[in-house]
Amino acid sequence: MFDLDRWREIFQSINKNRLRSVMSGFTVAFAILLFTLLFGIVSGLSNSFKSAFKDDAQNSMRVRVWKTSKPYKGLQTGRSIQLTNKEYDFVGKEYEDKIQYQTARINKSVVIKYQNNADSYRLKGVHPDHQFLEKTMIDEGRYINQRDLKEKAKVIVIGRLLKQDLFGEKPALNKRVNVNGSSFLVIGVFSDEGGDNEERQAYMPVTTAQMMYGNNDYINQIVLSYQTNLSLEAAIAFGDKMERDLRSKMSIHPDDQSALSVRNMAEANKNVGMFMFVLYAIVILVGSGTLIAGIIGISNIMIFVIKERTKEFGIRKALGASPASIVGMVVQESVLITTIAGYLGLSLGTYILTFIGDSLEKEYFIKDPSVSTEIVIGATVVLILSGLIAGYVPAKRAANIKPIVALRAD
Amino acid sequence: MIKIEKLHKSYPIGKDSLHVLKGIDLHIKEGEFVAIMGSSGSGKSTLLNIVGLLDEHDEGDYYLNGQLIKNLNEKKAAILRNKFLGFVFQSFNLISYKTALENVALPLYYKGMKRKERLQIALDYLEKVGLKDWANHLPNELSGGQKQRVAIARALVTKPKVVLADEPTGALDSTTTDSVIDLLKDINEEGMTVFVITHEEEVAAQTKRIVRLKDGVIISDELTKSKK
Fold first, then answer.
1. Contact A144, A207 (CB under 8 A)
2. Interface residue B89 vs chain A (CB under 8 A)
């Protein structure tokens, strides 16, 4: 319902009572401003957490080994543990139905040379699935495939920055590079969101790496990802079981973290999830507290305003105003003030967030602080509702005062 | 126009109740100019409030323009007030943040009239009370007499059947009192029923009929000399 005359009455009333309109508006604007800042900063914090794990698959697990720290079955402490293809195959067979991707990893540091350019780089011997686990993006050519593995092919996939170092702007694909003295064919160039270090390394088939560096079946790590349909709890249980099974297979004490451990992203996710949940719960509590304080603030002012205007309402009623028209007028005024003021607070809040966003990211681990559209819509609804309530309750009471009583008020 | 039979009204005061009107019978015909007189506490304001639908009576019957007033809700009362009644108060009761013109136009707003139309009519009535040049002044820029004339213009603007004036000259000096009374007389000449409450004999003497109230009952009801 758009009633121009009603709006004219309201604007006149607001305009003629600027101080109280500004005061009540200020309360709401300030509450919304605080709410926006609080929510924005926490969502920034949450973004930081998310991006910290962005590089690797969210559902990955790593089997790592080192030295035993506990004696077991007559074996003494300090024994070095070595993963081999045997463990790799065991994991693959034993948990086939739970595994999405699986790869071994061999870490080497090598000197890669092309024509006159040479430098030392990290090299990883991997299975084809490694591409998905590390979220490697192929820019040119291809990744390592099963045939490379089988043939122990001397092929290499190089990072974007490594390619730049050695080749500059010239094409690298299908060129031969010298890796620690052997000639390898460049079959692909990749990029990675994990940062510069990730893009300054190279991948080769795990079988080739085993042949080249020691001619054994050793591997450094087993990396895998669990099926995404597993719940967090099931995934954690899976990780724990795999840890126990591998320890018992390799004659390691069941509790020896140092000798063999499974780093399970499911656990990290669960912890981060819990942490964010608690953080959001606190923010919602504090934020809604602030909002409620704002609403109570405007209600207080509205109660006072309406008391002040009781006589005016009495006059209006004597002149033929129905109670509904008076309540409607007050509520509309109240909603108008809360909405405008709320939007000022909201815009100011979002403006401050974008303004300070960059500096926060560097120093305080808060990335891209912002409020989502849902929050904005939600806050708007809350604002309008609060305006409704703040205006309605006292206005209803004032409108029900008999005109004779209202006229006597001063 | 106004017919009151055995009207009673009492107000609760703590546990007791104060019996203000004790059986009033009054019949005011269309076009009359009636003054209700009485000392303070005689119940005259209560009577006006009931007649003006600003308050409800306890017992008895009240017919306004032939319609029995009973169990009115606020909404219906507001419509009847807007349609049949015009009010003039002792303390003027103008809305302070509205100009004289807007104050006069306000009853027409509640009647649902368009803005342009109601401002035109309001201006005509301001002219009638001699305040056309003051149309855009706020009430606090007007003298007491001017305020009361604005209030009278506001009471008249809806062309009500009855104008109810509660001590309209109570806050005015004698010169302005005369001008306000003359205005009310003019209105009455045009055929409108005017119902004035006053405790000033000079004011009452200029009406056509004086009803005296004492302790909630009518003690006299007579026509004045000015009634020809």
1. no
2. yes
